[in-house]
TrEMBL record:
Signal peptide: none annotated. It comes from Streptomyces ferrugineus. This is Radical SAM protein. The keyword Ribosomal protein does not apply. Gene3D superfamilies: Aldolase class I.
Length: 383
């Protein structure tokens, strides 16, 4: 893209490095033809950009990443092209492979996450197996949504890619990314059975709900799509009953004669860490009810690695980032005020311990999700 074209983008889109919960996200290519109705590209006003275009060279993007104030070699998780395109599109994946090579050549061992719903072939798998240092994970988004107006890309593409990736995995790992789950749309017994079968072709399965912001709701309304919820939310929506149906099926698979099911997780980093035989780098072990579906061996691994940091160390780091008010370290998380998401994630990954904003509390059992569709322990609606 020309400088003039880049100047017309929203500032958030023009900034190619963004810190998200699963890591520093590199997004130097924007534009995607897949037209998934719920895509986060709506938030950046670029859903109409169908042709992927580079904002800068792969070399410059890598330099911006490793020079970023929040980047720590061998520690900070990295995501590639997960905000404004699909990394496995034919015109995009050569740049993905180039970025991976540039990072790997530096001897970096950071986790690197690639999220796709597009086609992956044996040749791609061969390339992904060549990287010697990076801890690479491919997360294949499979929703099973059958309505082409909401998801024009047939989910069989993702299912085929998942099987292909799992069959050829040597140095990388593959996660069945079961999302977004929307009650009444893709949570039928048939959909759950499909996810169960696919979980056997992955090193881990992660399930999550819909990210439904006002911009996405406006797109749904303008295109006459059925509104999944009456309200929008800043967090993903995963109603309690929908989750319970999934967990009931999962529990039944453990009974004598039950159908097999791969390891299931609520959080992305939990599934990624399990796939690599490591403790969760987001420190979710502090939120103990989150772990009640994890394999016992993974719980033991996370427990061993989980250490409550000293308040003085946390307060010193938080103040340097601009925290105001009281800084707290409890048995679940660091709690701060005055910090937006990037510095909170910097603290979280640095200490290996959850870091929450006091103004946006994580309510018990909701696991950081929107309160829509949940009830408090006493049976009343959550605040």
């Amino acid at each position: 893209m020309t400088p003039a074209q880049i100047a017309e983008l929203k500032p958030e889109l023009a900034d190619v490095i963004e810190y998200r919960k699963s890591g520093l996200s590199v997004n130097h290519i924007v534009g995607c033809p897949l037209e998934c109705g719920y895509c986060v590209r709506h938030l950046f006003d670029n859903f109409g950009m169908k042709t992927p275009r580079r904002l800068m060279s792969d070399e410059d993007a890598v330099k911006q990443l490793v020079d970023h104030q929040y980047f720590r070699p061998h520690k900070t998780p990295i995501q590639l092209l997960n905000r404004a395109t699909d990394p496995m599109l034919p015109v995009v994946k050569p740049h993905v492979f180039r970025v991976l090579q540039l990072l790997d050549d530096q001897g970096l061992t950071n986790h690197v996450l690639i999220i796709t719903r597009w086609r992956v072939d044996a040749e791609d798998c061969a390339v992904l197996n060549t990287f010697k240092n990076l801890r690479l994970t491919v997360l294949v988004t499979h929703s099973g949504i059958d309505d082409p107006a909401i998801e024009p890309v047939n989910s069989t593409y993702a299912a085929d890619s998942l099987r292909m990736l799992h069959e050829h995995a040597e140095r990388y790992r593959v996660v069945n990314y079961w999302r977004p789950i929307v009650p009444g749309l893709n949570d039928s017994d048939e959909h759950i059975e499909r996810a169960r079968e696919l979980s056997l072709h992955a090193h881990a399965t992660v399930f999550t709900g819909l990210f439904f912001r006002k911009e996405i709701a406006a797109y749904y309304e303008a295109h006459g799509l059925p509104m999944p919820y009456e309200d929008t939310a800043r967090r993903k929506i995963m109603p309690e009953l929908a989750e319970q149906r999934i967990l009931d099926t999962f529990d039944a698979s453990r009974l004598p004669g039950g159908l097999p099911w791969g390891a299931l997780f609520r959080k992305t980093s939990c599934g990624v860490a399990y796939a690599h035989g490591e403790a969760d780098y987001n420190g979710h072990f502090g939120v103990r009810e989150l772990c009640n579906i994890c394999p016992p061996e993974q719980i033991a691994l996370c427990q061993k690695a989980w250490n409550k940091p000293e308040l003085a160390d946390v307060e010193r780091a938080a103040r340097a980032l601009g925290a105001v008010g009281a800084v707290e370290v409890n048995d679940r998380a660091i709690v701060v005020e005055g910090l937006d998401e990037p510095p909170r994630y910097f603290l979280q990954h640095g200490f290996g311990f959850q870091c929450h904003a006091r103004e946006h509390p994580h309510l018990y059992r909701q696991h950081g999700r929107a309160p829509i569709g949940w009830e408090a322990e006493n049976g009343t609606d959550t605040p």
